[in-house]
Each structure stands twice: as C-alpha cells, then as structure tokens.
C-alpha cells in the first residue's frame, strides 16, 4: 500500500427532512448566497424547504448555474458575492451547482484573474475560501463530500478542474427524496458517473490493497444492484438511499487512498463535453470501454479481477476474463440506456481525436493515467477507437 | 436506511516514515505530553522517531499507561498535565494508551470529579478538550480514528466508556512497520477485536443498507485473508498495511451510519475484563458465539447473510446457513489461537453470569442490543452459555 494522507472534514446529514437543519448548521450571523440551477428546485419542494430553514438568516439568491458550470455565468455570481459582502455560500443542486460554488468560494478571496484557479490549478486552503454548504439534488459526482471542482469556458472550449483542502463543504445535506422528481436521463447519468469514478480509482493494476479493492467493488455492486430499481421502478426510499450514499462514497477520497489512480477517462471525457456538449457521464461511457480495450495489456490483470469480483466471471484465462469484464461494463452502460460510441452522439466526430491530441499537447498534459502512458497520441487513438 | 449524521475530522498519515511528520502536525508553540505504555516503544524504534520529530517542541513524558487504562494511573497523568500547563497530548501506543489519552483530553478541562465523564457518560465537545494526536502501535481498536474511549477502575471493578465530538484525534500516524515487533498474541487480539467491531455494527437484522453491508463484509473478508499471514508469516509490509487499515475502518463510524447496531457483545465482554482481567478481544470471542446462539431467532437472517457473503455458504435453509455462520466465526477465533469458552480462561466462572446481571441492574442497563432485548437476565444467560 502506498503512503497516504487522508482527511475529510465534511459533515453529512443524511435522510428525509434533514434540510431544516440548515438553520442550525449555517451561522446565524452569516450573509448567505443560495446558488442553484435552472429552477427545478422550485417545483420539487427543495427550494421551499431551504428558504424555510433560512428564514431567520440574511439571504441572497443566484439562479441559473448551468450544467458544466460556465465561467461567464459564475463571474456574475462572483460580482453579486463581492457587492453584497456575502460570507457563506449554499449550493442547492447537483455536481454542477456545487462545483460552481466551490470555484466561487475560492474566487471570492482570490486577488488575481479567477481563471488562474483552474488554468494554473491553484490549490485553495481554508483561509483562502468562503465556507459553504450544499443540498444535493442529484446523486452523481460526489462533489458534496470532496474538495475538487470542474468548470467550463465556452469561449475557449475548455473544461478544467482544480481543488484544495479549503474546498470541502462544511455541511452537505443528502435527502434521498430528491430523486423522486429526477428525469430518468439524469438518474442514468448519475449512476454512470459514480460507477466510472470508482473505475478510475480501481481499474489500474493489482496492488494488493485488499480493503480498497473490497470497498470499490462494494460500491460497484451496490450501483449495479440499485440501477434497474431507481431507473425503472416506482420511487422507493431505500433504493434511493443506497444509490445516493454509493455516489457520495464513490468520490469522497476514501477508495483512492494508498492505491494508484487513472483519471485519464475523465481527462479525455472532459474534452468531448468541451467540444460537443455531450453530458459528462456519457463521455465517460464512450471513453471507458475504448480506453480499456486500448490499454488492455496494462490493465488486463485488474480487469480480470474486476470481472471476477464484480461480475462473478470465474472461468477462463486472465485475458478472457478481462475481455468479458469490458463487455459487461459496456452492457451495464447500455442497460442504463446510455450509448457508448461517439458517433451515436455527434456526426462531427471525425476530428475529435486530433483536436484532443492538439489540446493535450498545448496544455502540456503529456503523461496521463496510472502508468503515465496516456500520451496525447494515445488519447487520440482512444478517442478514435470510440467512434 | 436510517437518517444519520456523519463527520470524522481526524487526519490520517498512513505509511512507513510518517512519524517524522509530527514535527509539522503538532503546533510549534504547544507544550506536549507524550503518553505511552510499558515501554515497548523504546525497543522498537518508535520512541526514538517520536522524540526526533519533536526535538524542537517543548515535551513532557508519562510512561506506564496499562492495558484497560486504569483510572488511578490516569489521575497521575492528569496531575502532570495540570502542573505543567500541558496543552497538547500525544498518545503513542495501542487502544489503551489512546483511550486513556482521550479521557485525559477531556478531564484536563473538566471542573468536577473526572470519573463523572464515564459514569455519567458526559459528551465532550471540542471546546471541552485538549487537542491530541496519536501514533498507533497496535492495530485493533480503531480508537485512532474515532471519538470514543473506555477506561477501567480496579477499585470498583468497573470498565466504562464515553465519547464526544471533541475527542477525535487531530492527527493519527499509522505506520504498519510497528507490527514487526508485536507479540503474536497481541496481533491475534487485534484481529479479533476489529472483527468483532464489524459484527457489532453488521450482525443485527437485514436493513437493505446495501453499501454498509458491502463495506462491513469487505473489512471482515480482508481481516480473514490477512489473519494467517500477519499471525504466522514473516513480517510483510503489504499484509501489515491491509491489517492496519482494516482495523481503523472497522470502528471509525462509517459502517455504523444508517444501520442498527448491537454493541451488547462489548457491553457484556467489558464485564468479563473487569471481573477477571481477561484480554478485551478474548472476552468478545467468548461472548459473540454464545450471544448469537442465544439470540438466534432475532439474528438468524443476518447470520445467514453473513454466512453467504463472508463464508460463501450458499446451500441450505436460513437456519442452516446461520448456524454455519456461527460455527465459522468460532472456528475463525480458534484459528487465531483464541479460546471461546469462559471456563478456558478462569476457574472462577460460576458466578460470572449472576454478577453481570446484578451489575447491569445496578447501572440501569436494562435494554441493550439492536432490539433492546438484552436485559440483565438475558446477559446472564449469554454468559452462562459461554461457560
């Protein structure tokens, strides 16, 4: 096991009815900015619960943070924060709203060009950030219990990430009833996103970090088990709870500790969102199978382990099991009604590989993946294998 | 899934060589008291590493915290803390030293009789406690990443626990190389202790909290897999790492969230330590099988689930699987060279049950266990079934 440092100070309040506890969790003397997206929280009851909880707080609102939180929109919110001396942020939404809020928590105290925070990957400490809470409305990204964020800039077709120990939410409310009103497509995206988060921290090479493997497999098995129920069944609180907690645990830092991680599926996937506007989770479903086929020699042992532990494939050679593992993965995405070929999302796919190759070279991202062997040329080949 | 609140602010530094980072983690202006046990840290190199890391800190020492940390000894340390205006504690040891240190962190700021902290189960907040760090030398109790503690008072044959949000270690150093010098008996105790911690949070009744089950099973399977290697093999860093991390995860709060817990095995086990001085872990190995046989009707479904998931017992009725689960559990303890009958530890066992019954009545502990059905009379029956 590799040496590691682990700390996660976020307080989780899990369960139905927890939103009202915001009244106690957010300091009474705070000036709060509530940030949210397109307004679905106004129809599903979440907005009313939040406003009710904060009825005795001084509250401002910013509506309209889009998916893949757009830099230009965030700058408007930043202006509101500075103008009104906001000192506490409350994200009410999914990963996009929370990620945008993390960027704002850092940008509010950053003196230079805010874009530096992602373009230079500046790490934000607690002293450098406003405190913030979240009310999660879409299980998927794990942003509610980690310190990373990703934002986008349409003008330059960039989608970039950053992080820092000051960007853990102080409190996150996880109320599984929010899943009741989610469109099926968003639930499918959430499952695929969380599932791929685990793969990025697990599907590398055998490390003999037994507990991390077991935990990763536990999350994958839980997602597989609840997926058809939360997607196709009537709303069920138990299934929604399992789904929500699994998504949070998939990316709160725990399963990555002591083991190698990949993250090049995300690195490449982000570019497909930046280029084509494809939903984040779907870019992962496009890239992961193509990636694992392309890097088969390096990953086959862990792929076989995955196939055995997660899909109960116990017969055959390492190569045969590994191959079946990739097939099961792809079939799992299909079971979520998520397509896994780039050409199924856009007709303009032909230059996608070469564009990504150039972008990675320009940024100096020359060695991604657990073996640092995902060069820009390999990334291009993976994208072209996903057509 | 039940509603829950989860927060764990302890920073873990895991791996060989991490002890030197104490120099950065403990504030330079702190007056530090290093607490340890019988002095084994002076022969295994840990003491030297700690002293070297803190060579520029103002440091006092207290040696001699015994297993089942004794109240009278802790009062001596408390006196030292008050006399020297100590404001930071550093526990270097196993669960006993860490638990004693937690008591002292609370007692240092408690105005009344320190015994109140456990006899009245007073919860200690961060403002009510000295900050403290730990260097773990014996994987077992999980005390290095939780906020609970247990201390003993020989004069009254009491072993009592308390906890509080202020009693999470600020930092815990987990260096698996410490296992190199541990006696086999202590390693066996550590495995049995951590294993039973998981059972207390898992072996109740089916709850459909899928991820918590998977995580619990992951810890049990990891402990089972590494047990023969760390017990009987030559020292191996990888196995030691898996063992150490599994013990920490077994009782850091995570797997208990959202599910019922039992803890009556511990409740009864503590009394056997108080009465007979039997090692904590061994009292659990005595009580757990007798307990599960006695409460078979209430626990059989989860026992069968345990047998299937953890021991791969897939044939038979619920009752048959559950019965085999208990047999495998008992065999696992035996594989650690741990006996599971009270009469194998003491000849004076005959009154153990009636003594525990009276003690529980006196303390008002009338309804232990996940069904609140472990009355003093049931506790007596369980103890008598363990003879």
Descriptive report:
- The structure is a homodimer of 387-residue chains.
- Chain A has 387 residues and is α/β, with parallel strands linked by helices.
- Chain A has 2 domains: 11-177, Rossmann fold (3-Layer(aba) Sandwich), CATH 3.40.50.1970; 184-385, Up-down Bundle (Dehydroquinate synthase-like, alpha domain), CATH 1.20.1090.
- Chain A is 47% helix and 13% strand.
- Chain A contains 14 helices and 8 strands.
- In chain A, the strands form 2 sheets. Chain A has a 6-stranded parallel sheet with strand order 1-8-5-4-2-3, with helices on both faces. In chain A, strands 6-7 form a two-stranded antiparallel ribbon.
- In chain A, β6 (148-153) and β7 form a beta hairpin.
- At the A-B interface, β1, α7 and α8 of A face β1, α7 and α8 of B.
Write the layout of secondary structure elements.
Two copies of one chain form a homodimer.
Chain A: E1 4-14, H1 22-25, E2 31-36, H2 46-53, E3 58-63, H3 71-83, E4 88-93, H4 95-107, H5 116-119, E5 132-136, E6 148-153, E7 158-163, E8 171-174, H6 184-202, H7 210-232, H8 237-250, H9 264-276, H10 280-294, H11 296-311, H12 318-335, H13 352-363, H14 376-385
Parallel strand pairs in A: 1-8, 2-3, 2-4, 4-5, 5-8
Antiparallel strand pairs in A: 6-7
Helix pairs in contact in A: 3-4, 6-7, 6-8, 6-10, 7-8, 9-10, 10-11, 10-12, 10-14, 11-12, 13-14
């Amino acid at each position: 096991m590799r040496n590691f440092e682990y700390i996660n100070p976020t307080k989780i309040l899990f369960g139905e009815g927890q939103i009202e506890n915001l009244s106690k969790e957010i300091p009474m003397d705070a000036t709060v900015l509530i940030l949210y997206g397109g307004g679905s929280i106004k129809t599903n009851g979440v907005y009313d619960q939040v406003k009710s909880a904060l009825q005795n707080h001084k509250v401002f609102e910013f509506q309209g943070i889009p998916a893949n939180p757009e830099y230009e929109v965030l700058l408007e919110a930043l202006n509101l924060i500075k103008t009104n001396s906001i000192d506490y942020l409350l994200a009410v939404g999914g990963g996009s709203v929370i990620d945008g809020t993390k960027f704002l928590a850092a940008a509010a105290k950053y003196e230079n060009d805010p874009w530096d925070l992602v373009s230079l990957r500046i790490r934000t400490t607690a002293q450098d950030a406003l405190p913030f809470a979240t009310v999660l409305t879409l299980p998927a990204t794990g942003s509610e219990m980690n310190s990373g964020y990703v934002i986008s800039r349409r003008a330059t077709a960039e989608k970039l990430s950053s992080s820092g120990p000051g960007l853990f939410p102080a409190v996150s409310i996880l109320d599984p009833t929010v899943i009741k009103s989610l469109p099926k497509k968003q639930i499918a995206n959430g499952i695929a996103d969380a599932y791929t988060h685990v793969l990025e921290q697990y599907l590398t090479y055998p490390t003999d970090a037994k507990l991390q493997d077991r935990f990763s497999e536990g999350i994958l098995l839980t997602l597989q088990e609840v997926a058809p129920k939360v997607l196709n069944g009537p709303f069920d609180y138990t299934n929604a709870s399992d789904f929500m907690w699994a998504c949070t645990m998939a990316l709160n830092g725990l399963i990555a500790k002591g083991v190698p991680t990949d993250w090049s599926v995300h690195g490449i996937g982000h570019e497909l969102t930046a280029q084509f506007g494809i939903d984040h989770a779907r870019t992962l479903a496009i890239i992961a199978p193509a990636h694992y086929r392309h890097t088969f020699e390096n990953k086959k042992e862990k792929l076989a382990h995955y196939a055995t532990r997660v899909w109960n494939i116990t017969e055959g050679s390492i190569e045969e099991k590994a191959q079946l593992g990739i097939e099961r993965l792809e079939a799992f995405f299909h079971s979520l009604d998520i397509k896994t070929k780039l050409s199924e999302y856009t007709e303009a796919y032909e230059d996608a590989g070469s564009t990504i190759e150039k972008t990675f070279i320009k940024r100096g991202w020359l060695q991604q993946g657990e073996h640092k062997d995902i060069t820009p040329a390999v990334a291009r080949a993976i994208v072209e294998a996903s057509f």
